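Protein in question passed on here:
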Amino acid sequence: MGKRTEYDIFISYRRESFNQANLISTRLKALGYRVFIDVEALNSGKFNEQLLAVIKNCKDFIVVLPPGALDRCVNPDDWVRREVMCAMENDKNIIPIMLAGFEWPDPMPEGMEELCLYQSLAPMPDVYFDMQIQKLQGYLKSQAYFRKRKRWVKGLCIAAAVIAVILLIGYITYKPVAQKLADSLLLRTEEMREFDEIDQQGYQEWEQYLVDYKEAVDEEGQQDAIATFLKVLTKLEKESNTLLKTMQQNKIEVSKFHLPIFALHGVPALDLLLFDMYTESCFEELNNSFNYYREVIEEGNYSLPVVNNAKVNRAVNRASVEMYYYQYLSTLTHLPESTHERFYQLSPEWTNMPQTGLGLSDKEYERLTNMAAEKASQEIKKQQRIIEIEDAELDAMQEQIDELIQKGEEIDQALGN
């Protein structure tokens, strides 16, 4: 019998895409896959020759591609290039995952030309992450380890007895632990409500700024409009950072001992573990929105696609809040009714949150979540159409310019003759 492979999936990534790579790794591990991600290499910056041995023994090779990920691959010593080349040379099942903004370089780095021919996952908004993971599973050759692990009957009996004792103790302590979780989730929801208010205020101030800037009669008026908006934006950024620090100091903590108990009550452990990660990622997107406002002002480009992109960012952030809220309601619905009291007290004041209550089915909350994601998707599609129209107009203008230049050259030649 040969030596058992320790890992089935290898994830390659750039430093700037570590968060996305780590999130993919976390989700795949939770689904039962044996995943290798070289976290230590992120800090050391040194390529470890032992990684090549791991790649050779894996079935699947995932490479996470942020914008410009392959630019450095022209260097033979680049560690992402070495990992990809090792996977290609050993005929691994390679799955490129393209993040937003990534484009295949033309030409491709020498020796890596066929990388773009593998089955890959195209960029999608973060709100579709679960869909991407499902699609990724369809590309994998590896099987979830949890499903194929063999157990002996005696081991099962012992495990069942231990689990029974744990469940008994867990049920005795379940209600107070559930109350603590409900309180933590309610606090997190309050924070997400404030998050949405900050984002909404930032977008409203942005729209007002565009009006003030356009109506300014001179450059001094424009500079006043810019200064006023940046002052408000700085204030909102401080509020956002303070809120994020509070959130990070109040993690949603559930002991591993009670996770199976929550799962039996319809609250999957993975949902609880992802609450913090999901909400923190929302704040990253909010920070990106604020940075976008500043970039537009610095560049002075107020074309329709550029301005409309702020609206798209707001739509995506709003969808993220709504999707969080439906997950919160779904989770709280499965907790004991005794934990719902504070929700009923405070929720009437949450005027900026969806007017949806407790007690719906998981399927209905999922439907509402999909509707929220679809609204954001529609805004993204509108933006794509705007960009396509402007590109077509620019192409038409360029053609006219080229024609005028050609006619001018013909006239010059005629006069010269």
The radius of gyration is 27 Å. DSSP finds 13 helices and four strands in the chain. The mean pLDDT is 82. Strands lie at 9-12, 35-37, 60-65, 93-98.
